[in-house]
Amino acid sequence: MFSSIKTRLAIWFFIIFSILFTAFGYFLYNSLDNILSGSVDEHLHSEIQLIAGLLTIERDEIVVELSEAAIGEYARALSGHYYQLNNGHGEILVRSPSLSLVDTRLPIQKPSEVPYFFTTRGPDRGPLRVMVQSFPTPSGYLTIQAGESLEETWLLLKRFRKIIFVFFPAFFILSIMGIILITRLSLKRIDKFSDKVETITEKNLNERLDEMAVENELKPLAWSFNTMLERIEESFDKQRRFLADASHDLRTPASVIKSHCDVTLGRKRTSVEYIETLETIKQTSEKMGKLIAKILEVARLDSKAYVLDMNDVNLMELTNSVLKSLKPKIDEKSLKVNITGDDVILKGDKLKLSELISNIIENAVNYNKEGGTIDISISSQLEEAIINVTDTGMGISKDEIGRIFDRFYRIDKSRGLVEGSGLGLPIVKAIAEAHAGHIDVESEEGKGTTFKVTLPLLHVE
Fold it and tell me: Backbone phi, then psi, for 221, in 5-degree steps?
């Protein structure tokens, strides 16, 4: 249930609205209560000051002239407006007609020159706000009490509470309905977007979503999806090319083996002829085995299904070891090899790095000219090990230099002249990247090629 966007929005709105409603309602209610109570208190204070102004003292006697304060609301029984005067002994001197007509009184309070307020039940059993203030006289304190009914004030506050508890929930319900409606309409766009996505399969990966036809909020998603489709399409194309090239390269040795078997079995042969045929089949099978091994190597590197055996590796020693193994090929083409540099030690997989160096140098041997030169330098700079291999071979054109790391790709002018599977350089690149390094190439047709491998030294203890 909570996985629904509409549900989450509704719950989130409910929580936020509840908090805001409670805080805002509490603030409004208390503000109104303070305003109304303050208004009543100000009125009571004015009434006491008026009554106090009507009192005079003659010959140490208090003369009460309250005829002006005994009219209007004060003249009607239990009108909700009252006043009362007490002496220092608690004796009632004067009451408003609204009290005397029903022979009742306000509760007697202790004298206090500092005015104070309290709320109690009035003579009509309703809420009553009372102010008390005492004034000193020669014969003692004179306490004036004025009261005003809070019935209307409380009724107004009650109505306000009803408004809050009716209007706010109604607004909340309408808002929830609006959110659900808006999200439903908005999510319909996503449903259409999803329907379009579902129509795209491996058969029509070239299709793209129209980024301009979707809402602004969905444009980044459409762009990201189109970018993903481009990568998937590119990956599918590489896979198709890989399968096509692998099938082509495996078909040739398989055809050789089959043809030799067919010819040999066409009639009886001498033991020498059988041996020659088996030798050819053996050589062809070995080439096929090497090709299959390289294909599996590329697949493992791509899938990251291997773990590097990290140890200290001396690149200079490793390169010299590789040159010894390639010496027959180097001597066959009368190549001159120059190696310079220092002992550079890094953390790496010795077997993988040996394969990396071997593939680069073998590539320089295969594509070099007779009597050419191979310059190898090993150095370190800024926490990186650098291996440079430069040959004086045929070079690579600018159009092809960007594709030499593609699987099975071979330079056009080398086909038929140099044996190879087109997997050596892709393996070199994958091994370099597995060691968090990279490989760069510079070449000029007819002059030669330089491969530069950069590997992090990491920490060597």
Answer: -65, -40
Provide CB contacts within 8 A for 376, sequence distance 6+. Answer: 319, 337, 338, 339, 340, 341, 361, 387, 388, 389, 390
What percent of the chain stands above pLDDT 70?
82
390: nearest Cα among 403, 381, 399, 377 = 377
Q: What is the DSSP letter of 107?
A: P
Do residues 359 and 428 make contact, with C-beta atoms less than 8 angstroms apart?
yes
Higher pLDDT among residues 3 and 26, named by residue: 26
Query: Which pairing describes strands 336-341 and 127-137: parallel, antiparallel, or unpaired?
Result: unpaired
Residue 351 vs residues 250, 311, 329, 420: alpha-carbon distances, Å: 26, 10, 21, 21
Mean pLDDT over each residue of the chain, to the nearest integer: 79
- 186-221 burial, b at 16+ Cβ within 10 Å, e below that, comes to eeeeeeebeebeeebeeeebeeebeeeebeeebeeb
Residue 360 scores a pLDDT above 80 = yes
pTM for the model stands at 0.48
* C-beta separation of 98 from 81 below 8 A: yes
How far is the CA of 67 from the CAs of 70, 75, 94, in angstroms?
A: 5, 10, 11
Neighbour tally for 350: CB within 10 Å: 17
Q: CA–CA distance from 98 to each of 47, 74, 80, 313, 333 (Å)?
A: 15, 5, 8, 110, 131
For a pLDDT cut of 90, what percent of the chain falls above it?
7
Sketch out the chain's domains with CATH numbers: 5-155 (3.30.450), 216-303 (1.10.287.130), 310-456 (3.30.565.10)
Alpha helices in 306-397 (DSSP H): 315-325, 327-332, 350-366
| Beta bridge mates, 389 | 376, 451
